[in-house]
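Structure ticket #2291
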Amino acid sequence: MKKTIIILVFMLVETAIYAQWATLNSNSPPPLENRIWTEDPFNIMHDGLNVSQWFRETPGRAIVNGRILTYFLYDTYYKNNGSGIELFQAFFDYVENDGWIINYENIQFVDPNPNLAESVKAMMRSRDCDVSFTLIQDEMGAPDHVWAYCVVNNFNKTTGVYSTVIFYINRYYDRNGNMIR
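Resolution: structure written out below.
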């Protein structure tokens, strides 16, 4: 009996990490939607493109383990020579503005990530994007559930390798700013 429970717990954790159960829905605004260039207030250096256009931000959906998941996709090679470090602050702001707290002490790097779902890879290839971002949580899916992950997938066009960074997050506030624990 103990072996069965241990195996089930291991399978749940593995599925949560690699299947990427999503909390985003198709109505979620993209993380870069209203961001402005702080170092280029007149948008001269960026050819008149806003931040979202600069990284070719687009939503996408993939079916992973029978679930439809929503991702935000980015092309860092379009105008930024493959550098997407600016995206992380937008992702962190997006997560925190939705009432989640990021646990910066427990970051998981999966590099390379051979277990990334083929549907996610195909979605990224079809949109010619090298970065994807989503929030995931357990299958309960309650909006005030207290654990989840922020997942960023990256494709290195030079090496042809996918990698993943997982930030554990906890919900302390609901969408209205009321503390829930």
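Closing remark: The chain is about 25% helix and 30% strand.
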